[in-house]
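Chapter review: from sequence to fold.
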Amino acid sequence: MDPAEPYLDVGPVRCAWGPYRRGEPAEPAARAWLAGQLAVPEDALALWRDVHGRPHLGQAHAGLDANWSHSGERLLVALARGARVGADIEWLRPRPNAMTLARRFFTADEAAQLADLPHDGAEAWFVRLWCAKEAVLKAHGRGIAFGLERLEFTRDGEGWRLHRCDPALGAPADWRLHAFMPAPGYLATLAWRPH
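The token string follows.
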């Protein structure tokens, strides 16, 4: 990813987004951007994945954390100082089965909140909720395999607020989330908590 791509600083997190070619591995582009941010050659950047597939930076960058996500034709890469970070980006396309997925994977209260919305708004709120959940779970390190139902959000104004979560995720108040539209037709969420 070109270091000149647009970026955003929020809290301890810097993120950038750019084009992504479907079917290609995202890691080389993420590595290029991270290396540029850390002022090291790409081939010198120590980047490894744990048994769950979560990326980690090497000891030379202790105290920093990285995460990335791709959807459609966009890639989002995040770098955090002093925090664990998760990033999710979703292409905003029709999701006619959103309520079926919500009833299957979200908590009963979340599914009920979505069901109470007008049909034309429910899909957008579904994507916002999915993005928030996935960003938190990616920061935690297990991704959605940990269980989307193990954290619960409530609608709060224009977004979702983490209300309850499995103790393995820490306290809900420890988490910070930032949702934004990095490009037309895309929604992204960053989630982080202090180390």
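Two observations follow directly from the output. The chain has a mean pLDDT of 95. The chain is about 25% helix and 35% strand.
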